[in-house]
Amino acid sequence: MELVENNERIIIYDLEIENFKSYAGKRRLGPFHKSFTSVVGANGSGKSNVIDSILFVFGYRSSRIRSKKLSLLIHNSEKYPNVQKCSVLVEFRKVIDDVIDPDFKLTISRVAYKDSSNDYYLNGAKSSFKEVTQLLRNFGVDLDYNRFLILQGEVEQISQMKPKGTSENDEGLLEFLEDIIGSMKYKKPIEDLTKVVDGYLEQMVEKINRVKVVEKEKDSLEPSKNEAVKYINHENKLNYLHFLDYMIKLKELEQQDSETIAIQQQLKGEKQILETKIDEIEIQKEEKHSELNEVQKISNPLIKSIEAHKKVVLNLERSFLKAKQVCF
């Protein structure tokens, strides 16, 4: 997230340098102008150390500040032989529409010790290199490509550069400008994407070749396909004729089935009539059976009486015959 708007910028307002390189004790440089400041002086008067002090706060390595290690940045002279630390504080102000904002103040300081350790501070509170550099980036200070800074001797070095580097690790004017405008950071992603695109192109060429092979095979199979289509069409026509034949037979069967149903309905009606007559006959049979039982109840005694009388008559006849024989 950017902490400044389009019409805003931050500037270095002043520096507080203490025991840093050629500056013994505490020195305050500034305030600097919001647009242009020139540091002038004789050779050896400490002009370059002003820039070095700013680079020190911005987290540059000691080698970029013309020193082998951090402890050698601490002032050392006959008058100040045993100084234990050095520090630089940079005070920033915000400029809005070319006017310094009186309500904004930001201080960043860095302290280096004899053992080459160091500490960072934001507005007087202890911080870290990561927090400091991230804050500066958020304010638009380009710490990645140093577009805000050109050191002594770099102009001459730039003018003597070859147009383009001859190898990957060689830097020419093109590579230098790409660093300045920030396009160099896209080089690796572009190379990676180029490899990916090349891979896709190879796959595309391979698939195109496969398509061509398949098209040749398809063309060679075209006569066989046409013959197969012709056969399938004939087969479909034959199946359609079979279907029509089956439909005709089905209609005939349905018609026969309708006639059969009519006959069945007629037989069912006749059966119901016969069943009704049979039921009536059964009823009559039951009635006659009942009458027969009544007749039998009446006739059985009569039959028994007749049988008894027959026996009596038979006995009388026998007695008569015997009597007749005796008489004659």
Automatic annotation (TrEMBL):
Biological process terms in GO annotation: mitotic chromosome condensation
Pfam family, one: SMC_N
GO-annotated molecular function: ATP binding
GO cellular component: condensin complex; nucleus
Coiled-coil parts of chain: 264-298
SUPFAM superfamilies from the UniProt entry: P-loop containing nucleoside triphosphate hydrolases
Subcellular location: Nucleus
Presence of the UniProt keyword Protease in the record: no
Top-level taxon of origin: Eukaryota
UniProt KW keywords: ATP-binding, Coiled coil, Nucleotide-binding, Nucleus
Protein name (Swiss-Prot/TrEMBL): Structural maintenance of chromosomes protein 4
